[in-house]
Amino acid sequence: MGLKFMTDEWFAKIAELTEAAGDLDPPAGLQDLILNITVTGDDGDRDMCMNAGNIEQGHKDGAPTTLTLPADLARRLFIENDQSAGMQGFMSGQIKVEGDMSKLMAMQTVQASEKQQALQEQIVEITE
Known about the structure:
By secondary structure, the chain is of the alpha+beta class. It has a single domain, classed as Nonspecific Lipid-transfer Protein, Chain A (2-Layer Sandwich), CATH 3.30.1050. The chain contains six helices and five strands; from the N terminus they run ααββββααβαα. A five-stranded mixed beta sheet has the order 3-2-1-4-5.
């Protein structure tokens, strides 16, 4: 049985999987990249961040960019890895960007390391 997307239990399991994975060897374009993300939904807003390409609970102080988007779109982007959903969400106004837009663009052009891809597969498996 999987864990519900964006719950405290889900974030705790991701932190556990990330720690167990060790050095994920992020590519240079992701190493210093931090994006804060606010996910809106029926259960209220939840904060997460992408830190060097990895999902973490909460926002990071000093992040140059913050995205706000609905939960269904966040799931398609960060769990299902549906890149077309990102463009559609941005063009339709579902994704709101505050701060340095170039950081968001950098994330789109960099490929995750093999270790990060393996972690992503584990995250997909634990998410209901």
